[in-house]
Amino acid sequence: MRLIGLMLSLSVFFLLGWWVFGQGLEEAWDVEALSGRFREAKGWAWLAGIALLLADLLLPIPGTIVMSALGAVYGVWLGGIIAAAGSMLAGMSGYGIGRFFKEDFAKRWLGERDFGKGKSLFRRSGAWVVAMSRALPILPEVLSCMAGLLRMPFGKFVIALACGAVPMGFLFAWIGALGTEYPGWGLGFSFGVPAILWGAAAWWGKRG
After folding, report:
1. I want to staple 152 with a disulfide (CB 3.0 to 4.6 A). Which of 31, 97, 144, 147 is the partner?
2. Does pTM surpass 0.70?
3. What is the Cα 94 distance to its own chain's centre?
4. CB 122 within 8 A of CB 152
């Protein structure tokens, strides 16, 4: 129960940020406006884009808008690389925040039983949810922190994170480069490709 309570508390924390700041950010940062700002400072806008995606860990930054703006300014390939890098850094930072807390502290906080259950769950199925959650709001931040707190193997986490972050980064960079709105099939793409990639990675790992 403590494990569920912690996940709900983290979700409420991030939701409060969206409730307080999110609407204003969405209105201020549409793709065209942000693309215009990036074009004005193209030499270092890639760094600003990565910083914004990294800040999405704690602030209600509209990550998909940032990725699309990067694609509009830098094109599909370079924009996609920058967007994927920013999303990867955000995920690894969340993992680091969770891992910062020592295991003994986590056990006292969650209780020995819930910690054991959560650790087993993330070792067994955590990679699937990490990979497929990147397209969703709130959950990526919560799951990254929980993965670190519950000691999900770092290598496994990074591979799962890449399976979600890389396709999503290139998808939205492509959408931004085309100058189109987020298409309906994009959601299916954002879930389907990470699932296929992680499935292939898990199969390859078992072969080895």
Report:
1. 147
2. yes
3. 9
4. yes
Q: Where are the domains of the chain?
A: 2-178+186-207
Distance separating alpha carbons of residues 110 and 108, to the nearest angstrom: 6
What would you measure as the largest C-alpha separation in the chain, in angstroms? 54
112 to 1, 2, 107, 108, 150: CA distances (angstroms):
12, 10, 5, 7, 12
> How many angstroms from the chain centroid is the CA of residue 144?
8
E strands in the chain: none
**How many other C-beta atoms are found inside a 10 Å radius of the C-beta of residue 1?**
9
pLDDT tens by residue, the chain, 208 residues: 555 555 555 555 555 555 555 555 555 566 777 888 888 888 899 999 999 999 877 777 778 888 888 998 999 999 999 999 999 999 999 999 989 988 887 777 777 777 777 788 778 777 777 887 777 766 788 888 888 988 888 988 998 899 888 988 998 888 888 876 555 545 555 545 445 554 554 544 454 4
Tokens for 192? 């389907």
State the virtual CA torsion across 125, 131, 136, 137 in degrees, nearest 10.
Answer: 90
Residues in Cβ contact with 157 at an 8 Å cutoff, skipping those fewer than 6 apart: 91, 95, 126, 127, 130, 147, 148
Give the per-residue SS3 of 6-33.
HHHHHHHHHHHHHHHHHHHHHHHCCHHH
